[in-house]
Amino acid sequence: MPPTLAAVAALPQLGLRSLTGPLPATPVVWVAVSELEDPTPFLEGGELVLTTGMRLTAANAGGYVSRLVARGVAGLGFAVGVIHETVPAELLAAARDQGLVLLEVPRPTPFIAIGKAVSRVLAAEWYEDVTRAFQAQRELTRAALTGPGALVARLARLLGGWALLLDASGDVRHAEPARARDRAGDLAPELARLRRRPDRGGPAASVALAVPDDHIVVQRIGLGGRPRGFLAVGADAPLPPTAHTIVGAAVALLTLQSETPRTGRELRASLAALLLGRPDEGPAIPRGQVRVLACAGGAAVLDALESDAAGARCPALALAGHIAVIVPDGAVGTVERLLAGSGPIGVSDPASGDLRPALRQAEEALAAAGRSGRDVLHYSRLPGQGVLGLMDPGLAHAFADALLAPLRAEGLVETVRAYVAANGQGEAAARALGVHRHTLRSRMRKAAELLGRDPDDPAVRAELWIALSITSNGEEPIGHRGDSQSRAPRIP
């Protein structure tokens, strides 16, 4: 959150003094210096306005204050000893009458020092928010490897509230805590709104509502016209921007999982073929989603697999220095627990068809597990992996191409990339592109029309970030360091 007026005034190096009593917890979003009689056309609200009173008179003080109050500025800082030796009595009286916070700025304090101080606090807050969101993304990614229930539980803890995962019909799939299940019935009207497709554009991506003691956000899961499910979260206070980013990451993970085909029947058939026939060149390759485990436990691994029905259905092959095990994606957690204590284990990403890349992933994860002393290490948790490591390359490229196609046709991909990299900050994105902010705003309006969704929605930006990351390295494997080609915007 931005610093409050009280926090800014408390900075000892500035020497600011309140002339209108105790300072409220009003956030200061920026510092604006102006000597205009009416600076409000150049303000957005929330600024700490600084002035020397160059054009201030006894006659216009009341109107000046009225305009600032109507604009919603955070407060007014008046420099003494420059034009006026003291704050004019008419200005002070008007500020007190109209509820405008008035700070006295001593002569030795330059306005730029106040601007730099607020900028540093804002930068620190922004960095803390980005760090918190990044750490939350990592935690959600790790939880998603276990399943949607673990992801929902982790999300609720990160938000300090509750979370519900609903299927397309509105039935509860996972609730954290368990009593949150009781809220599902109240959300039915909101789910109907999210299912409805307007005459123009796509369906709403999310809805927000406030009820007594609860602030709730509901988002749809899935990319097509019909949602595959819904995620609802709630807390006792409005969610800050960082929390919306975290929820957007959770929705992106759940969407990716929901769009991945569940080919259980084909998987069982391919595993049966693998167990029943071994061609000369090697075992038959399963066509369903599986993972490869590289296990350093030797014969103990084979013994453990044979001791359990789930393990006995997993083909295993002794290789140089380790055992390779092919495990259905949904049984990975069970097999990991079965093999606990046998030695380090490396686990690949979900794969199908040619499993040689998955074997290499598992071997890399096993080597890293041995170096770090970890019992189990997933390839997606190695440096450079994250949300992108969860995706099937073919599905991921199809998703990215479909989402970005209208932008590519109008030459707007790099504009959107800069906007996403700047986390929706138009000024920073315009600087990165070398264009005027009005030009950027016009391009982003066009992009929103083409996409049929609002890029200022954190969930939409999360989807765009994923699509841009996937396409940044062409047809190469996704999920490696540097794919997003984005960096934090510089805050002066």
From TrEMBL:
Transmembrane segments: none
Pfam families linked to this entry: HTH_30, PucR
Domain Purine catabolism PurC-like: 26-120
Species in which this protein is naturally found: Actinomadura mexicana
Residue ranges annotated for the PucR C-terminal helix-turn-helix domain, each copy included: 412-469
Lineage: superkingdom: Bacteria
InterPro entries: CdaR-like_regulators, PucR_C-HTH_dom, PucR_C-HTH_sf, PucR_dom
Identification of the protein by name: Purine catabolism regulatory protein
